[in-house]
Protein backbone atom coordinates (compact mmCIF):
# COMPACT_ATOMS: atom_id res chain seq x y z
CA UNK A 1 0.00 0.00 0.00
CA UNK A 2 1.06 3.57 -0.64
CA UNK A 3 -0.43 4.86 2.64
CA UNK A 4 1.46 7.87 3.92
CA UNK A 5 3.00 8.67 0.53
CA UNK A 6 2.29 11.85 -1.39
CA UNK A 7 2.22 11.83 -5.19
CA UNK A 8 2.37 14.57 -7.82
CA UNK A 9 1.05 13.61 -11.25
CA UNK A 10 1.55 16.18 -14.01
CA UNK A 11 -1.18 16.66 -16.61
CA UNK A 12 -3.67 14.76 -14.47
CA UNK A 13 -7.07 16.41 -14.97
CA UNK A 14 -7.88 13.93 -17.76
CA UNK A 15 -6.58 10.96 -19.75
CA UNK A 16 -3.69 8.79 -18.61
CA UNK A 17 -2.66 11.28 -15.90
CA UNK A 18 -6.07 11.22 -14.24
CA UNK A 19 -6.13 7.41 -14.45
CA UNK A 20 -2.71 7.28 -12.74
CA UNK A 21 -3.89 9.71 -10.07
CA UNK A 22 -6.99 7.55 -9.47
CA UNK A 23 -4.93 4.36 -9.22
CA UNK A 24 -2.43 5.96 -6.80
CA UNK A 25 -5.26 7.36 -4.65
CA UNK A 26 -6.97 3.95 -4.59
CA UNK A 27 -3.64 2.45 -3.48
CA UNK A 28 -3.62 4.83 -0.49
CA UNK A 29 -1.45 7.74 -1.62
CA UNK A 30 -2.56 11.33 -1.29
CA UNK A 31 -2.35 13.01 -4.67
CA UNK A 32 -1.60 16.46 -6.03
CA UNK A 33 -3.24 16.83 -9.41
CA UNK A 34 -1.73 19.25 -11.90
CA UNK A 35 -2.94 20.88 -15.08
CA UNK A 36 -3.25 24.05 -17.10
CA UNK A 37 -6.89 24.57 -16.12
CA UNK A 38 -7.82 27.45 -13.80
CA UNK A 39 -7.76 26.68 -10.07
CA UNK A 40 -11.53 26.36 -9.72
CA UNK A 41 -11.81 23.80 -12.52
CA UNK A 42 -8.80 21.76 -11.37
CA UNK A 43 -9.92 21.82 -7.75
CA UNK A 44 -13.27 20.37 -8.81
CA UNK A 45 -11.45 17.38 -10.33
CA UNK A 46 -9.39 16.99 -7.14
CA UNK A 47 -12.52 17.21 -4.96
CA UNK A 48 -14.18 14.49 -7.07
CA UNK A 49 -11.16 12.21 -6.74
CA UNK A 50 -11.01 12.80 -2.98
CA UNK A 51 -14.73 11.98 -2.71
CA UNK A 52 -14.29 8.85 -4.84
CA UNK A 53 -11.25 7.41 -3.07
CA UNK A 54 -11.11 8.93 0.42
CA UNK A 55 -7.52 10.01 -0.28
CA UNK A 56 -6.57 13.65 0.31
CA UNK A 57 -6.22 15.41 -3.04
CA UNK A 58 -5.20 18.89 -4.15
CA UNK A 59 -4.70 20.73 -7.44
CA UNK A 60 -1.87 22.93 -8.65
CA UNK A 61 -1.89 24.89 -11.91
CA UNK A 62 1.28 25.40 -13.98
CA UNK A 63 2.06 25.81 -17.66
CA UNK A 64 4.94 23.39 -18.21
CA UNK A 65 5.93 25.15 -21.41
CA UNK A 66 7.26 27.80 -19.00
CA UNK A 67 10.61 26.76 -17.50
CA UNK A 68 10.13 28.80 -14.33
CA UNK A 69 6.69 27.31 -13.72
CA UNK A 70 8.06 23.80 -14.29
CA UNK A 71 10.92 24.41 -11.86
CA UNK A 72 8.49 25.65 -9.21
CA UNK A 73 5.83 22.95 -9.55
CA UNK A 74 7.21 20.47 -7.01
CA UNK A 75 7.48 23.14 -4.30
CA UNK A 76 3.96 24.36 -5.09
CA UNK A 77 2.63 20.79 -4.88
CA UNK A 78 4.41 20.20 -1.56
CA UNK A 79 2.91 23.43 -0.23
CA UNK A 80 -0.55 22.32 -1.36
CA UNK A 81 -0.38 18.91 0.35
CA UNK A 82 2.95 17.51 1.62
CA UNK A 83 6.51 16.77 0.40
CA UNK A 84 6.47 14.72 -2.81
CA UNK A 85 7.46 11.04 -2.49
CA UNK A 86 6.08 9.92 -5.86
CA UNK A 87 6.57 12.01 -8.99
CA UNK A 88 4.80 11.05 -12.20
CA UNK A 89 5.77 13.12 -15.23
CA UNK A 90 2.83 12.54 -17.53
CA UNK A 91 1.98 15.89 -19.18
CA UNK A 92 2.54 15.79 -22.90
CA UNK A 93 1.38 17.08 -26.26
CA UNK A 94 1.60 15.76 -29.81
CA UNK A 95 1.89 17.31 -33.24
CA UNK A 96 2.22 15.21 -36.38
CA UNK A 97 3.72 16.71 -39.51
CA UNK A 98 6.62 15.98 -41.90
CA UNK A 99 9.83 17.64 -40.71
CA UNK A 100 10.00 19.88 -43.79
CA UNK A 101 6.81 21.64 -42.66
CA UNK A 102 7.16 21.15 -38.90
CA UNK A 103 6.59 24.52 -37.16
CA UNK A 104 9.59 25.42 -34.98
CA UNK A 105 7.25 26.72 -32.28
CA UNK A 106 5.61 23.25 -32.05
CA UNK A 107 9.05 21.63 -31.82
CA UNK A 108 9.99 23.94 -28.93
CA UNK A 109 6.69 23.37 -27.12
CA UNK A 110 6.89 19.57 -27.43
CA UNK A 111 10.48 19.51 -26.18
CA UNK A 112 9.61 21.83 -23.27
CA UNK A 113 6.43 20.05 -22.13
CA UNK A 114 7.29 16.41 -22.92
CA UNK A 115 10.98 16.45 -21.95
CA UNK A 116 12.41 19.54 -20.23
CA UNK A 117 9.59 19.73 -17.66
CA UNK A 118 10.64 16.28 -16.39
CA UNK A 119 14.21 17.53 -15.93
CA UNK A 120 12.93 20.46 -13.87
CA UNK A 121 10.50 18.46 -11.71
CA UNK A 122 12.98 15.63 -11.05
CA UNK A 123 15.72 18.12 -10.16
CA UNK A 124 13.33 19.77 -7.69
CA UNK A 125 11.93 16.53 -6.21
CA UNK A 126 15.18 14.63 -5.68
CA UNK A 127 16.63 16.52 -2.68
CA UNK A 128 13.54 15.71 -0.56
CA UNK A 129 13.42 12.10 -1.75
CA UNK A 130 17.12 11.73 -0.91
CA UNK A 131 16.65 13.26 2.53
CA UNK A 132 13.83 10.80 3.28
CA UNK A 133 15.67 7.85 1.65
CA UNK A 134 12.65 6.92 -0.49
CA UNK A 135 11.30 8.07 -3.81
CA UNK A 136 9.52 6.83 -6.89
CA UNK A 137 9.66 8.59 -10.24
CA UNK A 138 7.54 7.31 -13.12
CA UNK A 139 7.92 9.07 -16.45
CA UNK A 140 5.27 8.50 -19.09
CA UNK A 141 7.25 8.12 -22.29
CA UNK A 142 5.74 6.18 -25.20
CA UNK A 143 6.50 3.40 -27.64
CA UNK A 144 7.85 6.41 -29.51
CA UNK A 145 10.57 6.59 -26.84
CA UNK A 146 11.77 3.25 -28.20
CA UNK A 147 10.86 3.08 -31.90
CA UNK A 148 9.84 5.59 -34.56
CA UNK A 149 6.85 6.34 -36.76
CA UNK A 150 6.67 8.90 -39.58
CA UNK A 151 5.74 12.57 -39.02
CA UNK A 152 6.55 12.62 -35.29
CA UNK A 153 10.04 14.16 -35.22
CA UNK A 154 9.55 16.36 -32.14
CA UNK A 155 7.58 13.75 -30.18
CA UNK A 156 10.21 11.09 -30.99
CA UNK A 157 13.06 13.35 -29.93
CA UNK A 158 11.29 14.25 -26.68
CA UNK A 159 10.24 10.69 -25.79
CA UNK A 160 13.58 9.08 -26.73
CA UNK A 161 15.17 11.88 -24.69
CA UNK A 162 12.90 11.15 -21.73
CA UNK A 163 13.91 7.48 -21.79
CA UNK A 164 17.60 8.44 -21.77
CA UNK A 165 17.14 11.09 -19.09
CA UNK A 166 15.31 8.58 -16.89
CA UNK A 167 18.08 5.99 -17.22
CA UNK A 168 20.67 8.59 -16.24
CA UNK A 169 18.75 9.77 -13.17
CA UNK A 170 18.11 6.11 -12.23
CA UNK A 171 21.87 5.55 -12.09
CA UNK A 172 22.47 8.71 -10.07
CA UNK A 173 19.89 7.66 -7.44
CA UNK A 174 20.15 3.84 -7.50
CA UNK A 175 21.74 3.49 -4.03
CA UNK A 176 19.39 5.97 -2.34
CA UNK A 177 16.04 4.16 -2.18
CA UNK A 178 14.83 5.98 -5.27
CA UNK A 179 13.71 4.38 -8.52
CA UNK A 180 13.23 6.09 -11.87
CA UNK A 181 11.38 4.30 -14.64
CA UNK A 182 9.47 4.98 -17.83
CA UNK A 183 6.19 3.50 -18.96
CA UNK A 184 5.97 3.32 -22.75
CA UNK A 185 2.31 3.10 -23.78
CA UNK A 186 1.05 2.20 -27.22
CA UNK A 187 -2.27 3.60 -28.56
CA UNK A 188 -4.27 4.55 -25.46
CA UNK A 189 -7.84 5.80 -25.50
CA UNK A 190 -7.43 9.52 -24.68
CA UNK A 191 -7.92 12.97 -26.19
CA UNK A 192 -4.29 13.08 -27.35
CA UNK A 193 -4.80 10.65 -30.22
CA UNK A 194 -8.17 12.00 -31.44
CA UNK A 195 -6.65 14.16 -34.24
CA UNK A 196 -4.81 11.07 -35.54
CA UNK A 197 -7.99 8.98 -35.36
CA UNK A 198 -9.91 11.69 -37.22
CA UNK A 199 -7.22 11.93 -39.91
CA UNK A 200 -7.51 8.15 -40.48
CA UNK A 201 -11.30 8.21 -40.31
CA UNK A 202 -11.34 10.79 -43.12
CA UNK A 203 -10.09 8.07 -45.48
CA UNK A 204 -13.18 5.98 -44.54
CA UNK A 205 -15.80 8.67 -45.04
CA UNK A 206 -15.42 9.84 -41.45
CA UNK A 207 -15.98 6.36 -39.92
CA UNK A 208 -14.18 6.70 -36.57
CA UNK A 209 -14.18 2.98 -35.75
CA UNK A 210 -12.64 2.22 -39.15
CA UNK A 211 -9.99 4.87 -38.47
CA UNK A 212 -9.15 3.28 -35.10
CA UNK A 213 -9.00 -0.22 -36.65
CA UNK A 214 -6.58 1.06 -39.30
CA UNK A 215 -4.26 2.72 -36.74
CA UNK A 216 -4.19 -0.46 -34.63
CA UNK A 217 -3.73 -2.82 -37.59
CA UNK A 218 -0.65 -0.91 -38.64
CA UNK A 219 1.23 -1.01 -35.30
CA UNK A 220 -0.52 -2.56 -32.29
CA UNK A 221 -0.98 -6.36 -32.49
CA UNK A 222 -3.57 -6.64 -29.70
CA UNK A 223 -5.87 -4.59 -31.99
CA UNK A 224 -7.36 -2.78 -28.99
CA UNK A 225 -6.89 0.74 -27.64
CA UNK A 226 -5.40 0.49 -24.16
CA UNK A 227 -7.65 1.73 -21.34
CA UNK A 228 -5.86 4.50 -19.38
CA UNK A 229 -6.63 2.60 -16.16
CA UNK A 230 -4.15 -0.11 -17.20
CA UNK A 231 -1.36 2.47 -17.34
CA UNK A 232 -2.48 3.60 -13.87
CA UNK A 233 -2.15 0.09 -12.46
CA UNK A 234 1.33 -0.33 -13.95
CA UNK A 235 2.38 2.98 -12.37
CA UNK A 236 1.11 1.77 -8.97
CA UNK A 237 3.10 -1.45 -9.40
CA UNK A 238 6.29 0.55 -10.14
CA UNK A 239 5.69 2.54 -6.92
CA UNK A 240 5.08 -0.55 -4.81
CA UNK A 241 7.47 -2.63 -2.70
CA UNK A 242 7.82 -5.46 -5.25
CA UNK A 243 9.29 -2.98 -7.74
CA UNK A 244 12.00 -1.64 -5.42
CA UNK A 245 14.62 -3.38 -7.57
CA UNK A 246 13.29 -2.06 -10.86
CA UNK A 247 15.05 1.13 -11.90
CA UNK A 248 16.16 2.59 -15.21
CA UNK A 249 13.75 0.52 -17.29
CA UNK A 250 11.45 1.67 -20.08
CA UNK A 251 8.48 -0.67 -19.77
CA UNK A 252 6.34 -1.04 -22.90
CA UNK A 253 2.60 -1.35 -22.28
CA UNK A 254 1.83 -1.56 -25.95
CA UNK A 255 -0.16 -4.65 -26.95
CA UNK A 256 2.92 -6.07 -28.69
CA UNK A 257 3.87 -2.97 -30.72
CA UNK A 258 7.61 -3.05 -29.93
CA UNK A 259 7.88 -6.85 -30.17
CA UNK A 260 7.77 -6.57 -33.96
P1 LIG B 1 -4.23 14.03 -22.83
O1 LIG B 1 -4.18 15.06 -23.90
O2 LIG B 1 -5.55 13.56 -22.36
O3 LIG B 1 -3.40 14.49 -21.57
C1 LIG B 1 -2.27 15.33 -21.67
C2 LIG B 1 -2.16 16.15 -20.41
O4 LIG B 1 -1.06 17.05 -20.51
C3 LIG B 1 -3.42 17.00 -20.20
O5 LIG B 1 -3.85 16.85 -18.87
C4 LIG B 1 -2.91 18.41 -20.47
O6 LIG B 1 -3.57 19.38 -19.69
C5 LIG B 1 -1.45 18.31 -20.07
N1 LIG B 1 -0.71 19.40 -20.71
C6 LIG B 1 -0.73 19.74 -22.02
N2 LIG B 1 -0.02 20.85 -22.22
C7 LIG B 1 0.44 21.25 -21.01
C8 LIG B 1 1.22 22.36 -20.56
N3 LIG B 1 1.64 23.30 -21.38
N4 LIG B 1 1.50 22.44 -19.25
C9 LIG B 1 1.06 21.52 -18.40
N5 LIG B 1 0.32 20.44 -18.75
C10 LIG B 1 0.01 20.32 -20.05
O7 LIG B 1 -3.40 12.82 -23.42
P2 LIG B 1 -2.85 11.46 -22.75
O8 LIG B 1 -2.87 10.47 -23.81
O9 LIG B 1 -3.49 11.17 -21.45
O10 LIG B 1 -1.32 11.86 -22.51
C11 LIG B 1 -0.61 11.65 -21.32
C12 LIG B 1 0.81 11.22 -21.63
O11 LIG B 1 0.79 9.93 -22.22
C13 LIG B 1 1.55 12.15 -22.60
O12 LIG B 1 2.88 12.34 -22.16
C14 LIG B 1 1.52 11.34 -23.89
O13 LIG B 1 2.60 11.66 -24.74
C15 LIG B 1 1.63 9.93 -23.34
N6 LIG B 1 1.23 8.88 -24.27
C16 LIG B 1 -0.05 8.82 -24.75
C17 LIG B 1 -0.39 7.80 -25.62
C18 LIG B 1 -1.78 7.64 -26.20
O14 LIG B 1 -1.96 6.83 -27.11
N7 LIG B 1 -2.76 8.35 -25.72
C19 LIG B 1 0.57 6.85 -26.01
C20 LIG B 1 1.85 6.95 -25.50
C21 LIG B 1 2.17 7.97 -24.63
From TrEMBL:
Give the Pfam families listed for this entry.
adh_short (PF00106)
Question: GO molecular function terms here?
Answer: 3-hydroxybutyrate dehydrogenase activity
Is the keyword Chloroplast in the record? no
InterPro entries according to UniProt: 3-OHbutyrate_DH, NAD(P)-bd_dom_sf, SDR, SDR_fam
Which Enzyme Commission numbers does its entry carry? Answer: 1.1.1.30
Q: List the keywords (alphabetical).
A: Oxidoreductase
> Does Oxidoreductase appear among the keywords?
yes
Q: Which family does it belong to?
A: Belongs to the short-chain dehydrogenases/reductases (SDR) family.
Q: Which NCBIfam families match?
A: PHB_DH, PRK12429.1
Supply the name of the protein.
Answer: 3-hydroxybutyrate dehydrogenase
Q: Where does this protein come from, organism-wise?
A: Inhella proteolytica
The organism's taxonomy opens as: Bacteria, Pseudomonadati, Pseudomonadota, Betaproteobacteria, Burkholderiales
